[in-house]
Amino acid sequence: RGDYREAFLATTHCNAAKEDDRRPRTTTTADSEKTFHDLPSAMETDREAATAMEPMEEETKTEHTERSSGWRAWVWENTGVAYDVAHLNRADPFFVKRSGVTWWTEIRAGTVTFLTMSFILPVNALIMSIAIGEEHKDDLVVATAVVSAVSSALMGLLANYPFGLAPGMGMNAYFVFTVVLQKQVEWQDALTAVFFSGWLFLITTILGLRRFVLSCIPRGVQLALSAGIGLFLAFIGAQPGGGMGIIVGDPVTLVRLNEPLTVEGNYDASKMWLSVVVLILTATMLALKVPGAPLVGIVFGTLIAWAECWARGPSASALDYPFGECADVSQTGLNGTECFCYAPERVAAIPKIDTAGAFSFDFIQKK
């Protein structure tokens, strides 16, 4: 109804203007003087009208800019190119104060994270050396440490997330047992494939494809993956080698307890019971909400193992490794694996990676 009224008034005004044009015009001196004196007020009215139109033009320009930049905002929010480094400031670095914590809490938590994930250093090197070679185990330890340190630092600096990153325990097993041993692919060729897969992951992250793929995975499956990885790590931690040694392999039931559980009848019992004591101590402190409970448990078990090894030596230590059995090489020669116990012999050493750059593209030529 309002539109019809405006159209009617506009038509009426237009017809009236036409009728005025047909009439003969007679202008007197008084009318001219009146028009001359009214000119400033008319100009002021026009100026106010133009000023009133400016905000409307600005709003139109703003709407046009928003429409033109809408796709840019979508790309920025839905791909991996968006970043926010506001946490890198002098007033509140990493927003520690805003989070309501202290630097001591962050340092303690970071130390616990490092100690709990540092098992990846010997375990990853042990698994990868099966395919690459025992002589490259030290190289693999250094490579694992460098990759973990750099990726964890970038996670904190770029994303401000307190996450520790390290090589995945599932992928290294797939690399060794499936790609190299089962598919008979040379480990140099397999490392080349890993190198290119890393670049593909980076590209898919920048393009937002990685986030899209993750969003397609149901929430229940995501939670199940987290639980499955946790169970897998717990299963590894209970096995011999780099774990507690509570379970061992069995051809019938897959796994069984490492019996007998008495120290006199089982070479591994001392290591098992020390691990159980540390586990119970840590769990008890966690239940009592003791600050730094995991760190206290780790330090407690480590100091006992080091002190026992330093005091009695590898030949008489009750915490000798490896699990199962070992041999005194000085007496038996090279028959068997030499006994050793975990205790540091030096604080630091110069790293050396002989396998660096050992890429091969022979698999492309073979195809």
Question: Largest sheet, if any?
Answer: 2 strands, antiparallel
Count the DSSP helices.
13
Helical coverage, percent range: 55-70%
Low-confidence stretches: 1-40, 331-335
Number of DSSP E strands: 2
Please state the average pLDDT score: 76
Strand order of the largest sheet: 1-2
Question: C-alpha Rg, in Å?
Answer: 38 Å
Kindly estimate the percentage of residues that lie in beta strands according to DSSP. under 5%
Shape designation: globular
Structural class: mainly alpha
The end-to-end span amounts to 77 Å
Along the chain, the helix and strand elements come as HHHHHHHHHEEHHHH
Keywords:
about 375 residues, mainly alpha, globular, two-stranded antiparallel sheet, disordered N terminus, 13 helices
At a glance:
The chain is an all-alpha fold. 65% of the residues lie in helices and 2% in strands.
Describe the structure in your own words.
This protein has 13 helices and two strands; from the N terminus they run αααααααααββαααα. The N terminus is likely disordered. By secondary structure, it is mainly α. Strands 1-2 form a two-stranded antiparallel ribbon.
Topology of this structure?
Layout: H1 2-22, H2 29-78, H3 103-117, H4 120-132, H5 137-159, H6 169-182, H7 187-207, H8 209-216, H9 219-238, E1 247-250, E2 254-257, H10 269-287, H11 293-316, H12 329-332, H13 362-366
Helix pairs in contact: 4-5, 4-6, 10-11
